[in-house]
């Protein structure tokens, strides 16, 4: 009896080790696929920006960067619907054993309604007549901005299809589509400039690429089969049960959506405030640095995108050790993919800018790049905690954190930009991310009893923040000299 019991214990331990190793292998494979999928658009953006600046001029490039910001802001703001599809695909309370199909069918209806509302609001771009920057053709700016709106709507419509691929963990297929379609946002305008160097030609080229990418996502994700073959149909489903499903979906998606909406507003508010308080030239100088720095979020975003369905799945496993193991490995991966690259950018940012921009290089962008790199490095670590907060149904806390971040960003930008200019916008950017780190950790610790064993600790965040502060002091000294 004792020997049999020992054999059972050994077998259980061996199975647990095998399960943990398997989870990590799947996680690493999905992350590798996501990272590879981001290389193409990252390279495309880095190569394209100097060409776009040369073709349009720095002031018009400032307008172009604001249009791209609008494209991503509205194109990625789906009120949490796509993330809810991913998270609820593993929750039998909502999917009734159908996986992602029913969450998708509920979510895509709301997304379609939002696309219609967005397109109907296109005439609002006429208000740009009252905000005409110097050196930019007014008609060109209005027409190109109007064309960006349907492009954003198409991006919005394709998000539920991307969520299907994430929920199914088909990251190779997802990135096979996402890489070229994301790169085309920067490559297509360069091709269009061969015929006409204007904001309108750039906007037309982007609209064409969005039409193509939307069709590819629809047919390659499995969404076409859902719509044409009636998979997961609600026909015959009791009205009360369907109402409960929709209510539960919207409850989960709404707070995720508020978080997503505020995150995007925060990410781009500095450009608009800087443009209002300074000039489009200052926006251009700031965006040059920000375009490099935010590329650090691509690799970390690839990690989080791959880890979210894994964490959502592991959460429902009876053995909590698997969650702790996955969390630890996620933290280590984030150090390699998010923290160390930020450190490298702080140390070698000026050299990289000179190599990247060539004759278009401006010294005004160097220190702001280093400051923002420090903030993004810390934020990459805190993304581990924020993702765990969402997995443990802390959407409300995450949304309130973003409310604080937006208020903090607005106040700090208004205070710091008049005194420090472009560097002031960079200071506000990184101070907000620093505060976000510690508040996010606090929210996670209150969400789960074993939170101290999950994610990135306050102690480690403090050590990294102190190291980055010391490096910035040295960088400022040499910049001033």
Description:
There is one protein chain. This protein has 481 residues and is mostly helical. It has one domain. The protein is built from 17 helices and no strands. It has helices at residues 2-56, 58-76, 81-88, 92-95, 101-120, 138-167, 171-192, 199-220, 223-229, 239-277, 280-293, 296-315, 320-357, 366-391, 395-420, 422-445, 458-480. Helix 12 (296-315) packs antiparallel against helix 13. It is globular.
Please summarize what this structure is.
The chain is mainly α. The protein has one domain. About 85% of the residues lie in helices and about 0% in strands.
What share of the residues lie within helices? over 70%
DSSP summary: helix tally: 17
Low-confidence stretches: 5-13
Oligomer: single chain
Number of domains: 1
Mean pLDDT: 80
**Major β-sheet, in short?**
none
CA-atom Rg in angstroms = 23 Å
Approximately what portion of the residues adopt beta-strand conformation? under 5%
Number of strands: 0
What is the SS-derived class?
Answer: mainly alpha
C-alpha termini separation: 78 Å
Please state the overall shape, judged from the principal axes of the Cα atoms: globular
Order of helices and strands: HHHHHHHHHHHHHHHHH
